[in-house]
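Figure 6 in text form: structure in, sequence out.
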């Protein structure tokens, strides 16, 4: 059995998400120590609870990691649906890679520079890729 070319963008985005997780930990732990936060006594709370308590630039990585756990879950679902339907056509592969590239660019912007307009443009473009994949899945489902 040959692997679908749609699997590679999934693996790439998962790998990127893990990389962001490590980056977040590497940056955030020293920022927490600098702010006098003791992990032995700190009680867990909600996302964003450290906003304002530690350096904002350290939090940018955490915010991005959270974002990588949100919309990309829909990407994974629709790409798996396309694979199951045998719809790993070239256009779908290009849209999937476009989505991944734009999400990686969004991560880099959010984790380093964090300009809202740049992030919004990258998010909107990645969402258009996701929309294209979803429309292709719907068409495939209706017309087989």
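Output sequence:
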């Amino acid at each position: 059995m040959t692997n679908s070319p749609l699997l590679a963008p999934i693996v790439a985005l998962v790998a990127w998400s893990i990389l962001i997780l490590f980056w977040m930990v590497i940056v955030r732990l020293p920022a927490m120590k600098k702010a006098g936060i003791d992990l032995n006594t700190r009680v867990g709370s909600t996302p964003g609870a450290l906003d304002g308590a530690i350096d904002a630039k350290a939090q940018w990585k955490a915010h991005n990691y959270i974002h990588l756990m949100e919309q990309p879950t829909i990407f994974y679902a629709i790409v798996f649906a396309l694979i199951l339907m045998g719809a790993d056509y070239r256009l779908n592969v290009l849209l999937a890679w476009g989505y991944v590239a734009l999400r990686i660019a969004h991560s880099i912007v959010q984790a380093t520079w964090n300009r809202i307009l740049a992030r919004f443009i990258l998010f909107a473009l990645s969402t258009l890729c996701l929309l294209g994949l979803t429309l292709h899945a719907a068409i495939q489902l209706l017309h087989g």
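Caption detail: The helical segments are 7-34, 56-68, 71-84, 90-112, 116-143.
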